[in-house]
Amino acid sequence: MQETTDLVELESVEKSISIIDLIFTGSLAGQIIIGVLFLLLIVAIYIYFERLFAIKEASRVDANFMNQIKDHVSKGKIDSAQLLCAQANTPVSRLIIKGISRIGKPLEDINTAIENAGRLEIYGLEKNVSVLATISGAAPMIGFLGTVIGMILSIFEIANSGGQIDIKLLADGLYTAMTTTVGGLIVGIIAYIAYNHLVVKTNKVVYQMEANSVEFLDHLNEPV
């Protein structure tokens, strides 16, 4: 009866092993790979929140902004319109101020100036976002590298066991194989979701910029 109780307790202890224990139980190579994946996760999270807040700030445009701009332009108050854009200091306002500075030139020149400024704004919004895409693709591959290393270690132990397999050493290789795979997939999935979310948010800001630019150009093209 006592032996049965001891076995149940032993199974309970074995089943309660944590992820941290699995990581430190694995080989040194596995721990290094997990460390690299953890660093990639930190980088991905930092870039995501930094860009998210930046894009959120860039998307803030006063609902009456364009009405005020059109009113100033119609009345010839170019300086007031430029001052309003400078105070707003958003991607939309920076595009509009670029167009305002070209007022008096052909409409095609104004449109070209706005488009060039728009490319720079989009580049700024997408800063470091490509790193997330790289992490989302690289993390699973790094995890699979750990899997291969773990399997090699396990096969090496089997080949050199001389008929007496050391379960502890064999398990170390399997732990490395499994934990690095899971770690790589987790980091890759998080980075992939973060990347796509930022792309959607960026596209909304780009659409906002295009819509306001078209509205501004249409206003300039209206007959006096």
Automatic annotation (TrEMBL):
Chief location: membrane
Tagged with keyword Cell membrane: yes
Membrane topology annotation: Multi-pass membrane protein
Record keywords: Cell membrane, Membrane, Protein transport, Transmembrane, Transmembrane helix, Transport
Localization, UniProt: Cell membrane; Membrane
Residue span(s) of domain MotA/TolQ/ExbB proton channel: 88-210
Gene Ontology terms describing biological process: protein import
Record field: transmembrane: 28-49, 129-153, 173-195
Pfam families: MotA_ExbB
Family, per entry: Belongs to the exbB/tolQ family.
Protein name per the record: MotA/TolQ/ExbB proton channel family protein
One cellular-component annotation, GO: plasma membrane
